[in-house]
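User: Please run a holo structure prediction.
Assistant: Happy to. Please share the sequence and the ligand.
User: Here you go; the ligand is adenosine monophosphate.
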Amino acid sequence: MTSFQRFAELCQKVEGVSGSLEKIDLVAAFLADLDESELSIASSFIMGTLFSPSLDLVIGVGPSILYEALARACGCSMEQISDMLRATGDPGLVAAAVVEKRKPIGFAAFLGGESLSITDVYQRFLAVARASGKRSQGAKVKNLQFLFSQATSLEAQYIARLAIEDMRIGVGEGGVRDALAKAFARNANDVERAFNLTNDMGLVAVSARADTLSDLSVMINHPIKMMLAQLGESIPAAMQELGLVALEWKYDGARVQIHKDGEKVRIFSRRLEDVTASLPEIVQTAKRIRADSAILDGEAVAIGKDGRPMAFQEILKRFRRKYDVEKLALQIPLHLFLFDLIYLDGKSVVDLPLTERRMLLERIAKADPSILADEIQSDSPELAEKIYRQALDAGHEGLILKNPASAYAPGKRGKNWLKIKPVMETLDLVVIGAKWGEGRRASFLGSYRLGCLDQLTGKLLDIGWVATGLTDEALADLTETFRELILVQKGMEVELKPAVIFEVAYEEIQKSQTYSSGYALRFPRLVSVRDDKSLEEADTLERVVSIYRVQRGRNDSAGSRLK
Ligand code: AMP
């Protein structure tokens, strides 16, 4: 049995080294030594995943449960915990510090309890996740409290981070995959493929050890990573790249992966969360599919009274709604557009070419062809251009060009699906605040709060955050520039004297109640630091609103939703 202390020591070491190869070596050496069940648990824990997707469990621990458990286990007050949190901004470090000073409660502590094993921690997390119903909050706290009362300070650090599924040690899926390949001398591509098909690192780890990776395949009721589209340069360039293409609208909706298993239907979102309960009409539609079992891929689009797609936020409301679902479904009805098939009647079809998958999809959706995304194969750029314009006129996002001969590549953003969307103008925004990074990047300001100018009042109104995606070196330079501009420090956040302008690209401007400008940027990214621009040249709220209108105008000819 491996102690959780050893796992925590590994995490500490991994957190302390900066090179990804070093991290992978450490993880590989650790995993190679474990027994089967520990291997399965630890390889998921390292990337902050607690349970296999087949268990369909969520831990459901927010800060309040976590801190209450800590306070109870260690005999300190919630105020003390919030003070420490303000100072460090890291729940893991707070847990470590609190446990370090733990006051013994009751006699159990004097008996010198057993040390925790990896499996003990996992079992407790299972109990936390399985606590449901009225008294679930109390049961969750009790189980976590038990862990904190038994844990060493270092163990507590990683128990806390696991509980909130944020390990902060710089190892993601890719890192664990490479570590498994190294630990058991397997081909990294085989490990990646197995993970993409099953989305279950524990299962992949055990199969890597047993040399049965090639046996792993798509499973019904087991969400699989979605295939993604790469941004194409232009229609002619994309057609040149692919030759004959399958042309489809890029619908303005939200991705759904539907698992139909007999009469049972489950729907997963793009992030592979189970959203079945929120989408009853999609469940009904899926039931009409003529197949014993199938995994279907498509887009759910909210159609307004005018027959045009509603704003993306409206769809999100549907996906998040847990109560009064039917009522909201009347206001925001969803229509399904299926464009792919992943699994049919007990077998994976991911390796069939798109053309064949599409034929099978058409066959099983025969009863209800309106649920199929329109698709046409062509090598004519003129036709592609025409379909692209139609999509925009109809209020959708653009065009997707797909390679008809391509397999379904789960989790891949590759050239076999190319998306074409209108290019958004960039915005020049003032940097008005920032956040210190975490772990290795704790001494850098990593993300920046942006503001636009309200010409009426002369005030800067915030419009969201951008994380720079810069190298450590560039980030260090930028931090130096901003260090002198810090006005107020509040925990991990700083307020900055407005002086620097960032040119920011984004995919879309959205209305937002979070920011004082009333708008937010979807997928913002830093294009350049506009040292050449003075504050007066920053973009105004007026410009933000006008771009928003043009963009929505594409989606809403009447313009009635603009106000
Ligand atoms: P993006 O979110 O910009 O990376 O674009 C990819 C997304 O477009 C997919 O995840 C789908 O949600 C969406 N989409 C809309 N229509 C299609 C389509 N016909 N084929 C594939 N994806 C589509």
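Confidence is low (pLDDT under 50) at residues 554-563.
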